[in-house]
Structure prediction request, 294 residues.
Amino acid sequence: MPSAEPDDYYLDPRSVRRAFDAAASTYQAADAAPGEIRSRLLERLDVVRLEPKVVLDLGAGDGAATRALKQRYPSANVIALDISERMLRAAARRQRLFRRFHRVAADAQRLPLRDASVDLAFSNLALEWCASPDAVFKEVRRTLRPNGLFTFTTLGPDTLKEVREAWRSVDSGVHIHRFIDMHDLGDALIRARFAEPVMDVERLTITYPDLSALLRELRSGGAANLAHGRRRALTGVHRWRAFERHARAAARDGALPVSVEVVYGHAWAGEVRAPRGPAGEFRVPAAVLKRRTS
Prediction:
């Protein structure tokens, strides 16, 4: 039976790899927003009682989070896994003599790791580049040891909504990737048999002096439009000018505000339990929490 035709928002892993290979030399220059989100995700580990032997940085990029994870867990084997070999070469430059980590080039949807071999899987802003979150979650769940932790960020549907709306005023084409809702991701974690999933969202607004500055940052960070249904021909001058005109209309006080919806996910490899409490509320077992000291 022939495989189904990919939908308009399908992301081919080969295209993703090429985009990030091309951005490896400029990626760090576009790290302001991803770096802030990464710091916030790392801070969430402060309240978790965890002494991992193996840590996986899933979608490690240039290794900024990998280095931080190795500093946090110096005795652990830390693995930087990314689909882009060039990004992993950049990650190698972040290593220190006594803080070295492993580097593995692979697709997050097909992890080359043994079952139950990882204690902590950490992923910052990588899931939105994967065609199937279900496949990623299934693979992470397979590789986690019992009581292992999966913690991640990804982008929600309100991300780049100003850009999406500006294009929508011009045509009906696919210009911005599809970002998945927090609740749908929570359901996918449960389908993958994760326990005690906790999902929450944070909305940020980043301002740019103009549209060109935003587009330069997106290109530097590898954030090209790779959707299967994107327009393949060059954008005509009239359509582009119409897009610019609608984008400028969103400017406030001479700056262009851009929305970023950050989705945080946190789940355990363990016994799957039904949610408790009010609808949509999940609770974290007290046994896995550290006691904060003032």
Remarks:
- The longest helix spans residues 32-43.
